Amino acid sequence: MQYQQPAFKTVRHRPHWMQFVINEFIPLCLCLAAFAFAGMENMPFKGFILQVAFLLVLFILYKFAYLKRLSYYVSGEQLIIQHGVFTTNNNYIELYRIVDYDERRSFIQQIVGLKTVTIYSGDRTTPHLDIIGVPVKIDLVAIIRERVEYNKQRKGVYEITNR
User: Fold this and answer.
1) Left if phi > 0, otherwise alpha if psi is -120 to 50, otherwise beta: which for 3?
2) 114-136 as b/e, with b when 16 or more CB fall inside 10 Å?
């Protein structure tokens, strides 16, 4: 039986910048506190505190660059994760291997209108994938699910469960 492939456009998702603030809240606060203490008069260990603050700044900048370079692509047949700062890594998950989905919203994510979508797959290298910083208004699970069901039907993949 010949399947007519629907015209699936590739969907690109990049985490929202507020997810960075959520993830790195404690290092951001520590960095601000270190600079505040280093600026005080007669502060002991002032040089050490400044060194710690600059190391925290480097750490935070790396984490920000990593998040900005993180992209998720949902094509007609694959879910592609592209990440890395100094080198770029691409990880591919065949959509027919995806078996389950989950959406979570932490308290802070609820305040800023974000969520985390978790994908469970039969892929050996990536059995569990968290897609972070998804705006609540985007129904990413529905987009992925439609493509997963199409690919499973096209490839003749059926799930067998013990009930």
Assistant:
1) beta
2) bbbbebebebeeeeebebbbbee
Burial class (CB in 10 A: 0-12, 13-18, 19+), 1: exposed
Cα 143 from Cα 42, distance rounded (Å): 59
H helices of 6-157, in order, are: 17-23, 25-38, 46-69, 107-112, 140-155
pLDDT in tens, 64-90: 999 999 999 999 999 999 999 999 999
pTM of the model: 0.84
Q: What is the CA radius of gyration of the chain?
A: 21
- Both tokens of residue 95? 């959509």
pLDDT in tens, 116-161: 999 999 989 999 999 999 999 999 999 999 999 999 998 888 777 6
In order of 21, 39, 42, 53, 90, the CA distances from 35 in angstroms are 18, 6, 14, 6, 37
Residues 6+ apart with CB under 8 A from 68: 14
**CA–CA dist 103, 136 (Å, integer):** 10
